[in-house]
Amino acid sequence: MNWTIYGMECVGALILFTCLIMIPLCKNPVWWIHDYPKDIQEKYFETHERIPTEVLSAPVFLKKGFAVLLALSILTALALAAGATDFKTGFLYAYGLWLLVDWYDCFFLDWVLFANVKRIRLPGTEHMDKAYHQKKYHVVRSVLGMALGLVPCLLCALIVEALG
């Protein structure tokens, strides 16, 4: 496996992920409402029409399902481009990249940007500084993301094995 390519792919993945999250978020914070803490959602819904935010609701399931399929496609292409040729290398490559993005999402996007950039706060919740600085909420979500990541990363490894 080529570590230079892997490093460049890591940087590229972080940039792509940031764009995929931040562009819709800046245009319409409600797009990602299902990822906001419940107390922020409830405050928002006091003055706005309630929309589905449960994990198994159709809109959330479709967004998350599409994201997992997109991640599988990207991880597989990047693993092959970096030279992964067997199951173990494919899985370690994919899951390493998944963890990097997951932790970046938690510790930078959620803890720093999400907590401090007023533009991406839901309308009517701009004053809820304490709620936007909930670190435990984002760590728990990150751990769930780590578990969820096993599925596309294992599938990526199977594809790499089959093509390698």
The low-confidence runs, each spanning 5 or more residues with pLDDT under 50, are: none
Shape: elongated
Mean pLDDT rating? 93
Structural class: mainly alpha
User: Main β-sheet, in a few words?
Assistant: none
List the helices and strands in order: HHHHHHH
> Beta-sheet strand percentage?
under 5%
Radius of gyration, rounded?
Answer: 17 Å
- The beta-strand count equals 0
Indicate the percent of residues in helices: over 70%
Query: What is the first-to-last residue Cα distance?
Result: 12 Å
Q: Helix tally?
A: 7
List keywords for this structure.
single chain, mainly alpha, 164 residues, 0% strand, 73% helix
Please characterize this protein's 3D structure.
This protein has 164 residues and is mainly α. The protein is 73% helix and 0% strand. Helix 1 (3-27) runs parallel beside helix 4. It starts with a helix and ends with a helix.
